[in-house]
Amino acid sequence: MLNTHTHLLLPLLIFSPLITSAPATLSTRVCGTIQPPSNFYQIYEEEQFTNQTSGLGPFFPSGEFSFATEQQANNVNERDLIASFKNIACPPVGRGPYNIEFNFVPDSRYTASGNTRIDVFAINGDLPSLTFPNGEVSEYPTWGSTNQQTGSLIGTFTLPTGADARRPRVFFINSVVCRPTINLRFSITNDSPAAGSVNYFSGPQAGLRIRFGC
User: Fold this and answer.
1) Cα–chain center distance at 124
2) Average pLDDT over all residues of the chain
3) Is 111 helix (H, G, I), strand (E, B) or coil?
4) Is the distance from CB of 153 to CB of 167 less than 8 angstroms?
């Protein structure tokens, strides 16, 4: 198994949290501008897939993405999620604070099991890219290339399971300094040997978002 947590000691270069990283809290206030991610990628720890990536969505016409991450027991065969927010309206066009949130709206398609506690890391710089034989250059984050750019832990939150998943709530993850592009990595926490997985349909009305201008 690769050492997936050496990046915890790396400096946060892309943006610095405005508050100390802490477990997520709940917020009921709704205001400002809501911006969902532009796209998601899933990256794989398994040796045969470490150089591969999967784009997750969007699913038209809803514009939803699959927010999915998992790991098997004893922290092996991890599949982490990369979320990229692009063209964010930073000051003076927009105004802060810029809050990373997860708007959990109950959804019959949602699945979760085991450890559903999720660490959120900053990714330094643009996402890794790949030049294809036809000359096209495209984002192509993989396990190895993303490890090299993964920075500080900026927050942790736990998605609900069972009856608790029938209750809507907003998880506040952290506030960040605005950049036109913000890239984040989501990983089932390694502080427990338990297996865990989540799969939530994230879109304009629910799921991961940046909220600003409040």
Assistant:
1) 14
2) 84
3) strand
4) no
